[in-house]
Hints:
This protein is α+β, with helices and mostly antiparallel strands and 171 residues long. It is built from seven helices and eight strands.
Amino acid sequence: DFWSLRPESLHQVSFLFSDRGIPDGHRHMNGYGSHTFKLVNANGDCVYCKFHFKTDQGIKNLSVEEAEKLASTNPDYSISDLFNAISNGNFPSWTFYIQVMTFEQAERFQFNPFDLTKVWPHKDYPLIPVGKIVLNRNPSNYFAEVEQMAFDPSNMPRGIEPSPDKMLQGR
């Protein structure tokens, strides 16, 4: 079976079958970057990092029954919940954190730090708060601002570069 033959999937399946369950919309879920990136400062100093986005609204979940009902009656529930919250001035936000690892730490790490199926231990690489992401307006032109958006992993802002992460390089 899939899970027993692919132990790298254990972390994801643990979330799936945990009490965390099915998120009650986008506002009530965290976001985790899969890939490791390289951060470069103005002096050229480099470190590796992982990105984390923790919801400020709190984790909230749906029961299986609620999720089944919404799937059949309102499949766009999560999108409309987000849109309506923003329209009502209830701007959802996420605290943005990074985990940082030096090149030397990466060389001595217990597993490949660029393996996107692995989690860096928080006790060794604590979450460092960087800022907030706040959604404070809905798109005024959905086609131009959403439908035409292209997520290109190779288009990175200055100071963020690809790491030796093979999956990232392949995209």
